[in-house]
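User: I'm writing a tutorial on reading structure tokens. Could you give me a worked example: one chain, its sequence, then its tokens, then a sentence or two explaining what the tokens reveal?
Assistant: Sure. Here is the example chain.
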Amino acid sequence: MLQNISYMNFKNILKNRSSAVPVHPSVFMALIVPFGIVGGYVTVTLAFLMTRAGVPLEKITPLIGMSLLPNVLKFLWAPVIDTTLTNKKWYTLSNAITATGILFISILALKEESLTLMGMLIFLISFASTFTVMAASSLMVYDTPNELIGRAGGWMNAGYLGGVGVGGGGGLWLAEKITDPLMVGVIIAIVCMLCSFGLIQLHEPNYGIRDKEYVKTLGNLSKDIWKVVKSRMGFFALLLCFLPIGSGAASNLWSAISNDWGASAKVVALVVGLAGGLLSTVGSLIGGWICDKIDRKKAYILFGMLQATFAVMMAYAPRTELMFILGTSFYAVSSGLIYAGFTSFTLEAIGKGAVATKYNVFASFSYIPIYFVLYIDEWAHKKWGAFGMLNIEAIMGLFGMLLFFTVFNISQQD
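And here are its predicted structure tokens:
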């Protein structure tokens, strides 16, 4: 049983916490879906359709990079969430912008001449979606006790990964069935907007860092961040974010390189999109449960090594459609485990206070290895094909694990 805690148990744990709202963590799964939809729509639907339209991989990769870039930089604007408006207002506004941006992208022709404008729109919806995830994560932290952080993180990442399946596999399936690309965009945009109804069950928490004077609020925010960074747990959590352990970068290229395995559009839509999202969701729920049972940092590393193993197995397997299905499916489960592991050890490290800023400092840094591994994967694929790409990614994960334990052991001796 993935979730051995019922809704009533969850309420009993929270009943003595007046600042918390006793909602089941599955609420946060719904709120995070639009963030996943953006990633899936760009990396699966658009990437596959552009590849089929004759756009080369080296011109598709920068577009995928544009979708990742705001996630690397989002710590720069995270303080806005903690110091202005309410989380609900920020979520509603950003989700509306995300949905509108998807509509505009769906109108553009899939040609090289449209890539500049498309890149700008991709950056815009990715930028807007960072506000949805920041607002949702802030609401979640104030509503979740420490003993349930792993499972709450599992539900939240299940929503993200499920959203990737909706925006990716769902979008690609719709594109195959509906000739009008605008209608595809309309349907995906509507799904994004429906997720805002999850806010109804939540109340705004009482933020401890806010002051009547905005300058003092910023001062309190800075102190709160520094307190986490200088702590032992905070330091090692940040170190994990910088290391290429379980980057999952290859999943951003499955659609673009699916021809290496002779995978059809239907298979890509099903396995990389819908089924991939489902498998990642299951992995996330399992990972969240595991992270509440063992050390959360070690669980994250374990999940990363599992993903590296799957990558190597896929590298040495025959280049057939069946192996593409099996390889990407196992990889998807490991991605779910890793996302849950990241959220769990991060939430444990940051505590309360300036949640949006602190969480997204960690989250932004965690996108740095994803960002550069993506380009290393593209380079390795161009030079050695899928075999080299998958092996290089696994080697980088192994290097990251060795580096972490080296630093950890040295710190134990001090």
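What the tokens reveal: The first helix runs from residue 7 to 14. The domain at 23-413 is CATH 1.20.1250.20 (Growth Hormone; Chain: A;).
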